User: Fold these one by one.
Assistant:
Number 1:
Amino acid sequence: MTTRILEDYQTLSVTAADEIIAAVKSNPAAVLCLAAGDTPKLAYALLGQKAKNESVSFAGCTFIGLDEWVGIAPENEGTCRHFLYRNLFGPLGIRAAQIHLFDGLAKDLGGECNKMNDVIAGKKGIDLMLVGVGMNGHIGFNEPGTPVESYSHVVDLDSTTQTVGQKYFTQATALRQGITLGLKHFLGSGRGVLVAAGRKKAEVIRQALEGPLTTSMPASIIRRHANGIAILDAEAASLLKV
Ligand code: F6R
């Protein structure tokens, strides 16, 4: 794993966008799994112009959803689906046939997990997986304690995720469960990118990168990724020793 510490959120976002562009340059049919959330938002906003400048097309790529809130309607603007259409798929003109997202309203959530595992296996895995890190160290909705061997699964969200997740919703919303790709998907991806920005992420980043390698801190898995990179801004990196 390598770590890159950038001056601020702007330069972090440029670096994260460059990672995505590089993956598509090296494989125009890349399978990309890109997190929702505040951290990668600016990186996604930069992608369109960068792709144009570097003559990169996303038309041959496949997009895999990382996770979704269970039981929340897709038109709710707090959903990961809504976020991805608004910030990524819409602006980049990605076609529906290129997109595979979890249905958080599916009656058969287990079947939804199997379906996603099969899509990924059918594509021979994910080429680039970009994840944020939660205040409890989760990546995707792999909450503390999730086994490293996990594939897609349904999870009871921990209280931190239920509380922090309110920031995506315009009104108080009961967030009890999530559906998510597993840590094994992350470890198996061709390139694993973890992004974190801001002082509020500093302690969790310290634990993830310099604390024990443990399932209690899911983000520490980045250190086990053969081709992993942590992209941090100076504030998120401010408690690291090196
Ligand atoms: C979102 C996701 C979450 C977030 C994490 C950080 O798809 O999987 O794990 O990446 O909670 O969220 P932000 O970036 O909003 O701090």
Number 2:
Amino acid sequence: MSNGTGWRGKKDLLSIRQLSRSEIEDILHYSLRLEPYSGKGKNLDICNDEILINAFFEPSTRTRISFDTAMVSMGGTFDQFIPEISSIKKGESIENTVKTLENYCDIIVTRHSEPGIVEKLASLVGVPVINAGDGINEHPTQTLLDLFTVLKHLNRLDGLKVATIGDLRYNRPAHSMNLALDKFDGIEIFGISPHGLEIQEEYKPKRNKYEEIVINMKNLDETLWKINPDIICTWRLRKEYIPKGEDTLGYSYMITKKTMSKLKEVGQLIVTHPMPFEEGAEEISPEIMNDPRIVPFKQERCGIQVRMAVIGLWLGHEDEIKVVGT
Ligand code: CP
């Protein structure tokens, strides 16, 4: 049962800004320890008798379901709060809704379209609240699993050259990723976007090098070849956030077979994408999804072990996680 203080005094996980480099490293270390128990019938009993509620006010497949799987893998149970069939339909406020959910669970995972609202809701309840995406602000657990994927493939988080490309303005996981990478050393980030989708100042790295490059699709390949990155983070065009009436034609980037032909080899480069892909408007050409350097499906699998670590730590089970597999 949660001791009410969350992990190392942090009741909630709201932002990557809350975590130090060593805390991120610890979460990734624990994720690796938990990996053999991540899904598929080999559950731990660390979260016995504990209940997670997913309260998603925006659509999700992988974040929501990987949190479910993670909780079951830790030995706990989960329930879904579904706004469309809830008392919100009778006019109940979101604040009272979350205060009600607190009575029925030990930890709440929530996503909402309004930046900052998860923090506000977390302040109303005693149980840990995990931010699964608040508007265009942040998506911290996506970044933790992105970093875990990087570590698995490239074996380091320092000294990386990162091209972060696409819609940098409205992409919460892009924001969290920048903030996380900036905690490591010798990082160079190249923020590549079309005009109008540049990143806001508050999400730019402050310690490491950041170069903003504003181009359209026809210049993408040459730009990437010149940078020769270790990681290309591609981001979905978040049409749901782009103001209505804004012309999104010309905003799309796509990594193609030609793009990949002059980049680093397997073991030296990965191309990430948090998914989903919009069918017919993919940021990575479907014909190259079998290239081992392209890892979106591997990323989403890592979501289970990373979210197991987050659930276990924020429920106060660090000591039990430390000895898993010993
Ligand atoms: N990456 C991600 O957040 O995916 P979902 O919207 O499916 O949860």
Number 3:
Amino acid sequence: MTNVERAAEVLKRGGLVAFPTETVYGLGADARNANAVRRVFAVKGRPANNPLIVHVAGVVVAKRYAARWSDVTRVLAQHFWPGPLTLVVPKTGEIVDEATGGGATVGLRMPDHPLALALLAAFDGPVAAPSANRSNRISPTTAEHVRAELGDAVDFILDGGACAVGIESTVLDVSGDIPRILRPGHITRVQIEAVIGPIEVAGDSSPARGALLSPGRLPVHYAPVAPAYRFETSERDQVLNQVKAGERLLLISDADGMPMGDDAHIHFMPNNPTDYAHRLYATLRELDQRSSLPILIEMPPNQPQWVALRDRLTRATRPWRREG
Ligand code: TXA
Ligand code: MG
């Protein structure tokens, strides 16, 4: 038996399988099996009302779990699948209510990763899978991260190496009249609007509504263990002047693709969003492991292509406190 076949067997028995996707590793369970799905919530320590994304092998499978597949949904799936776009649609009864946090919609996604697709084909069913980390912690981008964080709580880990994208999918609600981004991700608003025209973005101006719609938008999320603070590039000199012994700095490199420095306390991140995302979570984990002293993080520019990264960094940090 291959590892993929083994993993599919575990899912069929109601077990939990961690598997790679192009974004981050998922913690998978049969989305039709309430007990299996409950275990996912227990292992993660996730509130029962926070819905899981259901992974599918393609559009034909997706339509089986969607009570409505609108023209816009069809066009988006055609254009962006397989890929990091989760489409929130009205669900059918086959997906257990536990998987969707009791809600009437389900977020469906066809991942762009050969092992994930092989697993979905072998299992031949819908796989509910949140990121394979404990609730409110950093998402895993290697099998080693999953092993370190969840260990024996997972029945099987499919190892596909490091994830290419490195941050989670864009979550787009297409269940209403106007599509709404509930969580920014690798696929940007500009890319989506180029295909279907104007859409909305769930604003932080109505946090209560945002939190209800997509709990991944709660202020504290994706956080490292060490205290982490954010600052804008305009504050960089001030921060450099006031940095204390043992504190680590995560700066944006001036040069494209510049490697991470080996300096004791200054680490450079790439100055393009693709490479930055690919490295972010692994870098935060590494810094976390080395010390529990504060990490001071320079925010990427306030530009459309950095929206998802600014979102994750904002949720992982508190504003840097200036002195004097
Ligand atoms: O890239 C990803 O999306 C990864 C990989 C494994 O696919 N998964 C992931 O899942 O990040 P998770 O559970 O960590 O985040 C899912 C986000 C949460 O913010 C959740 O609230 C939102 O998607 N979500 C899922 N289903 C939803 C629904 N029916 N309505 C509204 N929000 C939903
Ligand atoms: Mg997550």
Number 4:
Amino acid sequence: MILSRNNLKIALQKSGRLSEKSLEILQQIGMDFDRSKDQLFARCRNFDLDILFLRDDDIPEYVQDGVCDLGIVGENIIKERNAKVKIIEKLGFGRCRLSLAVPEGNSIQDLKELNGKRIATSYTASLNAFLKEQQITAEVIPLRGSVEIAPSLNLSDAICDLVSTGNTLKQNGLKEIEILFQSEAVLIQGENPLPNDKGKLVNRLILRFQGLLQAKRSKYILMNAPEKALPRITSIIPALSSPTVLPLATKGMIAIHSVIEEEVFWDVIEKLKMAGASGILVVPIEKMVL
Ligand code: PRT
Ligand code: ZN
């Protein structure tokens, strides 16, 4: 099998922290493909799409240069590579932050105290940009991996690395003193215009991503309430559109159906109960197209 010139191409991480979730998302938007280990690309059976499996560091450039039309990669890599790509959607996984950390017992508390110190990192571009912005002069020690052990080997006084749970820092006796930026996996697209047919195909695929993500962010809510509570309840639900209202067999009672955002979920439920709602049911939504 060879890559098709007419098919869309999406770049995913070959093997690593983002791989499984990236594949899962493609399956959730209906892409049907087989993936065997060590395969460099896979072809979808039901969409004109080829999936390329790459090292995450290469994904922004592949998309920027138009070798791939779309990609899924951490924002941290896009920033580090200074890639010219459009971020279409944040995907809600692979969350982490790029942070500065120093040994626990170290007196360094404040950023300014990093002046004249050595900082080990594999994020040299991001760190240099940050130091410049903060007007700090420090020596940046580039390391490929295992950055967290640099201070104990006396290679550096501080480190700048990705953190998610913070366990690695703790295990190595380091404390976080500053966050440079937060990051998560994102769907990216090149900035150059595509030929018409490819552009249409990309938009179809993006619409599917958006339908899935919108559904993940939302819940379908059903409840019963006295009819007279309706105005108060509708003012509480930040609904997609006006809620569905159905009469119940019990006189004066109604059922109300609506969609709420996951983020405000608990807050809204408490308010609804206070407004007289009962039998509140909340169900997940599989896909949602606005
Ligand atoms: O082979 P390839 O180059 O494709 O993969 P890779 O080894 O460079 O990357 P990989 O798979 O480790 O990470 C891929 C992406 O996952 C990163 O670019 C980030 O966008 C995202 N991500 C999310 C993380 C982390 N969380 C993370 N915790 N990437 C790395 N880490 C490392 C960090 O460098 C540190 O060593 O995990 C350690 C800290 O983790 P905690 O949980 O102990 O804080
Ligand atoms: Zn990498």
